[in-house]
Amino acid sequence: MPQTGPGSIARVGRRIGALLIDYAAATIIAIGFLGYNQFDLPAEAGWRQFAPMMVFAVLQILFIPTAGGSPGHRMLGMRVIRLGGGWSGLWRPIIRTLLLVVVIPAVIWDADQRGLHDKASGLVLIRA
């Protein structure tokens, strides 16, 4: 992969920006459709306290195989591809998203700046 420009691995700033866009969209959807209220106490909210995270996960799982990345990725000029080429399939985005939701694998990178969630799923986030 090239070191810079299109096709290079997306850098941290873009990744964080895309994450913020996606989580903001997920929160808005959770408020509008799932009755999420960030001011509810956890005991009162029940399952709804996790609504934004659930919507975030669904957005990732649906958009990566169909649009080549989440809405945040695409807005910031990135896409998720399979490292060996070809379609990402369904299980790779699921594995990537589950590890992303856990957070720790996503904040540990290798020398190529690929998170463990990308390495485990065989995917790579590149600049479009």
TrEMBL record:
Compartments it resides in: Cell membrane
Superkingdom of the source species: Bacteria
Residues spanning the membrane: 20-39, 51-69
Residue ranges annotated for the RDD domain, each copy included: 10-122
Any one annotated GO CC term: plasma membrane
UniProt entry keywords in alphabetical sequence: Cell membrane, Membrane, Transmembrane, Transmembrane helix
Record's bilayer topology term: Multi-pass membrane protein
Primary localisation category: membrane
Record-linked PANTHER family: PROLINE-RICH ANTIGEN HOMOLOG, PROLINE-RICH ANTIGEN HOMOLOG-RELATED
Protein name: RDD family protein
Organism: Microbacterium bovistercoris
